[in-house]
Fold:
Amino acid sequence: MPRTTAEVEVSQAHAPHPHRHVGGGQRPATCGGPVGRFSHWQTHQQPSQATKNSTLAVQLVSLNKYNTTLKQQVNRLNLEKEQLNKELAQVKCQKSTENPTTKRESDMLKRQLEALRSEVATLRNANAKLLDEREDRQTRAPPADVEKMRKELQSSREEMLKLRTSNRQCEELLAQTKKDLLQTQRAQASWNQSCQELRNSLAEREQSFKEKEKQLLHMDRLIQESEASRKHLHNSLQELKGNIRVYCRVRPVLPHENETEPIFAVKPDDCTLDIRNPDPNKRTKSTFTFDRVFGTASTQDDVFDEVSQLVQSALDGYKVCIFAYGQTGSGKTYTMEGSPHECGVIPRTIDQIFSAKKDFTSTGWEFTLEASFLEIYNETIRDLLADPDCNHDYTIHQDPATGSTYVSNLTQKEVVTPEEVHQLLEVASRNRKVACTKMNDRSSRSHSVFTLRLTGSHSVRNIKSRGIIQLIDLAGSERVKDSKVEGDQLREAQHINKSLSSLGDVIVALGKKKGHVPFRNSKLTYLLQSCLGGSSKCLMFVNTSPLATHFSETMCSLNFAAKVSQCDNGRAKRNLDLLNNP
Structure:
């Protein structure tokens, strides 16, 4: 209990002098019994109670402010703890992924944890200092303030305990995260090793595949070279023999034709053809051999592949003649002209010539190409590229200097691109004479002759070449009794058969090497004189029908083709000359 003013005054009246020694010169006790404490109180002359209370109040205010600051720091630590928990949760979520920044985030988390620990240690020291100060002031503080401070201190201790518990949990979570991260890194290292092994295996397989691909390409090139060599040797043999090459093509059965049993059989050598007589009373079989036989499954590509080398010869300065023979509906026009979706010999020939022309240009050759297109209708020549109203007199002549055949007043169109030639072919196709017969609803009623003249020059070598390629689609060869035509069409059929008969006579005369060959018996044979009797390369397609109802006409076509294959027209000669010669 604090003393009253009267008690203090009494104590001061009976107190000894502060410098007076009691008991033989010894200093008075300051911590002994009541006398010592009283003397100590008198010696220091304590300030008034009001002054002490004022000082204590100031200290309590300061202590409350410090407590407030401490709470704010605790709250901030709690917020940082929550943030740390969130970051640890993110680390835990991302630990199963192969994130290359996991280690960097873990290091940053460690630094944050270390900073948090340092701050907690600082707070602990501050809190210990505060506790010391509060204990020092407990004896002087009012009981109510002391109790309040005790409660606040207890609350602070509880918050600190919670924070320590949270820190321990964070440390455990961080340790577990490190453990999981180590396992993830080990798994990633194993996965990387597996990927590297797979990459090495894939590289080895790719290398093996490339080597096998090179081997296949090499073998394919050898096959192509072997096939080209075979064709070259075959062509050389044919040129030495001097024969006209004959190819036979059997068209497939069309969807609207009811044919159950084929009458043809192509041998595996692709050069021999068997034909069976459908008459049950005869059942005879005939065999024909030609330079090449194309079965019903053959394509336009297969056909032109055999013709392409012959086409190439025109750029080398040779005369080349390709014509199609056969009855109406046997596929002559399809073989020569093709369809919108499958080009025939004529359009493919044009494309190949212009493609090869580019290759020749790179070696120093320059070419000029001129195209013409005519038809022989009822022994009359018609210009298919001229104006329909034009009435010129067309006459066949022989050039004694070159041995070539030409037609006077015939339209000659210089062409630079294959598109220009295709446009001319479309014009000629519209102008050609066609009529309906019993054997075909669009039967060609004339012989069409497409001629392309190729004049080349090589200034360095001082030479020039003159090549000619003629592509001919003959009219249908069926007999009158089979075609069932009358009137004008009957007269057309008679002219067609007469010209084809003259062609047969020429073939027979050439085969027997007669002194006189009747080329002038028809305009067709007269026009083909340089091809059949001169030094040119000649190829005939004999087109046949697979139908049993066409057996007799098919036999006529095959017998005619067999005669042609025996024709000797001499060895082909290349037409080269010097540039300064006319």
